[in-house]
From TrEMBL:
Residues 297-335 are annotated as: Disordered. It comes from the Eukaryota. The keyword Repeat applies. Residues 11-267 form the U-box domain. Keywords: Repeat, Ubl conjugation pathway. Residues 312-335 have a biased composition (Low complexity). The keyword Repeat applies. Signal peptide: none annotated. This is U-box domain-containing protein. SMART domains: ARM. InterPro entries: ARM-like, ARM-type_fold, ARM_PUB, Armadillo.
């Protein structure tokens, strides 16, 4: 291990070289080592390499950006605190993300978004990252931009999901156009994985008072109900997310929103039933809770509807989302 430490220190020392090629060679080696050997991540973090890697995110060289951002992502898997405590790290990540459609390398954008996703595993980091409006705006803009690569969109969605786990971040996301981007652009992609990720973020954002008006402006309730239509062949994860989003809207919006959902949900009962009967444990409980919220004590429904949907009984469940398992999706071997 001591020999490995000496080798690492040698590469780290080259990060401060005046030669750009020497810096690039060192970053490439560090990326490879953090990918192949988990133990090297903490050694590199402790050796003072992170500030130099952060500086490379501002480089005009795509090769430097790509390798530095990938190395930081690998480090974030095992050493979140040293990375998060590095001065200027979020500003550097914002720099890359904000130039996703111009000077930033696509893979650097993806690694930076994935690094945020990795850091957002830590509860205390969510309000800190969420306070950086430029980061939130850039993540939303990646989704809105039709030229964004699918991988960039997926990584941006995961970062937004992590941000939305902190309730106070949801209002910021809505203010910066996340709801419109998710409904008008994100759901246009017919890839199952993208739709599942988009609806996972939608389900999280729905859990705040500001979401009611934002969803109304994009006909969000109707879109979520349509996703539950059995004829649309939505995946089970997508339907679970739609149920979760509708449930949160009803709970945040009160009787007015509940009535809107009732008026639209007649065509979605089979989809809700499918989630209740065949979904995950959380999906089942949410579907049952949604029916309890929508049908209530039956005063708003005629006898035929009550008989048709008698299999739905009132239940309570904790309000949590389930599409993303919020841990870094990079393997221990890194990228």
């Amino acid at each position: 291990m001591e020999a490995k430490r000496r080798t690492l220190r040698s590469f780290v020392s080259k990060l401060s070289s005046v030669s750009e090629q020497s810096q690039l060679d060192a970053v490439r080696e560090l990326r490879l080592m953090t990918k192949q050997d988990e133990e090297t991540r903490s050694v590199i973090a402790d050796s003072g390499a992170i500030p130099y890697l952060v500086d490379n995110l501002f480089s005009y060289s795509h090769a430097c950006q790509e390798n530095a951002s990938a190395t930081l992502l690998n480090i974030s898997i095992s050493c979140k605190e040293p990375l998060m405590s590095t001065r200027g790290v979020l500003d550097a990540i914002s720099h890359v993300l904000s130039r996703h459609n111009s000077t930033s390398a696509a893979s650097a954008v993806q690694s930076c978004a994935a690094t945020l996703y990795s850091l957002l595993v830590v509860d205390n980091y969510r309000p800190i990252i969420g306070s950086k409006r430029d980061i939130v705006y850039s993540l939303v803009d990646i989704i809105k931009n039709p030229k964004s690569p699918p991988r960039s969109i997926k990584d941006a969605l995961k970062a937004l999901f992590g941000l939305a786990l902190h309730p106070l971040n949801r209002c910021t996301m809505i203010q910066l156009g996340a709801v419109e981007a998710l409904f008008t652009t994100g759901l246009k992609d017919q890839k199952v994985g993208i739709v599942e990720d988009v609806t996972a973020v939608i389900a999280q954002i729905a859990g705040c008072e500001e979401s009611v008006e934002a969803f109304r402006e994009v006909s969000g309730i109707g879109v979520l109900v349509d996703l539950l239509d059995m004829g649309n062949k939505s995946s089970m994860k997508t339907k679970e997310n739609a149920v979760s989003g509708l449930l949160k809207l009803v709970r945040c919006g009160g009787e007015k929103v509940a009535m809107d959902v009732r008026l639209r949900a007649l065509g979605a009962f089979d989809g809700i039933a499918d989630v209740k009967e065949n979904g995950s444990s959380k999906g089942k409980s949410k579907a049952e809770a949604l029916m309890a919220e929508v049908i209530g004590d039956g005063n708003h429904w005629n006898n035929n509807n009550r008989q048709r949907h008698s299999r739905f009984n009132s239940s309570t469940s904790e309000d949590s989302s389930f599409s993303f398992n919020l841990s870094t999706d990079s393997s221990e071997s890194g990228v």
